[in-house]
Amino acid sequence: MVHIDYWIAALLSALWIMLPSYVPNPAAVILGGGIPIDGGRLHADGNRLLGDGKTVRGLLLGILAGVLVGSVQILLQTQGLPEFLPRHTLLSVSLLATGALAGDLVKSYFKRRRGIPQGQKWPVADQYDFVAGALLLTLAGAPAWVLSNITIPIFLWILVLTPLLHRAVNLLGYSLGVKDVPW
Ligand code: CTP
Ligand code: MG
């Protein structure tokens, strides 16, 4: 049973690591709105730079929500957690939360360049934008933390779990009426 324990420990570690980057997107859906980050500006191709789906409030409150959840995780770490769980730092949770919405912004930029209207789906990119953004920014800002905490099995779980969680959360948001489309 050693192998099962090992993979379950990696799965729980993947969720623990990625939680600060899973929160900002749904938080932005619930708390966002108002002034768009691109200020309504158009690109030379005639399409919006980012679109109305990327707002200043969504960005700021989304990041804040991710950092808040991460801070609760850091507090819990001082209350005795299972040995195997990786330990967050204020830097790791900040980079993960910021990177998630940075990835989301970059994705929208390229979505608009491809002529895909705001809110329409762009498979694969919609599911992995925030994970790619979160992991790349954290790798850039805290490389030692990433290399010592995100092992290969944890990384594989992140790749498998992320699109499933993304799908589940969006379906939930849609059925609750918080989100206009189920993706
Ligand atoms: N949102 C926000 N600010 C952000 C990100 C998201 O206000 N920085 C809110 C917007 O209300 C947005 C909703 O969350 O419509 C859903 O986010 P998302 O699916 O990322 O954006 P889309 O509207 O689908 O736009 P895009 O096609 O650019 O992905
Ligand atoms: Mg969308």
Note down, in words, how this protein is organized:
The relative contact order is 0.16. This protein has seven helices and no strands. The radius of gyration is 17 Å and the shape is globular. By secondary structure, it is an all-alpha fold. It is 67% helix and 0% strand. The protein binds cytidine-5'-triphosphate and magnesium ion (MG). Cytidine-5'-triphosphate binds next to helix 2, helix 3 and helix 4. Residues 119, 126 line the site of magnesium ion.
Layout of helices and strands:
Layout (H helix, E strand, L loop, with lengths): L1 H21 L1 H8 L24 H22 L12 H24 L11 H17 L1 H7 L2 H24 L8
The chain binds cytidine-5'-triphosphate and magnesium ion (MG).
**Beta-strand content:** under 5%
Summarize the biggest pleated sheet: none
Mean pLDDT: 95
Q: Nearest-angstrom radius of gyration?
A: 17 Å
Low-confidence runs: none
> How many beta-strand segments?
0
Percent of residues in helices comes to 55-70%
One letter per element, helices H and strands E, the order comes to HHHHHHH
Please report the distance between the alpha carbons of the first and last residues. 37 Å
Compose a concise summary of this entry:
Helices cover 67% and strands 0% of the residues. The chain contains seven helices and no strands.
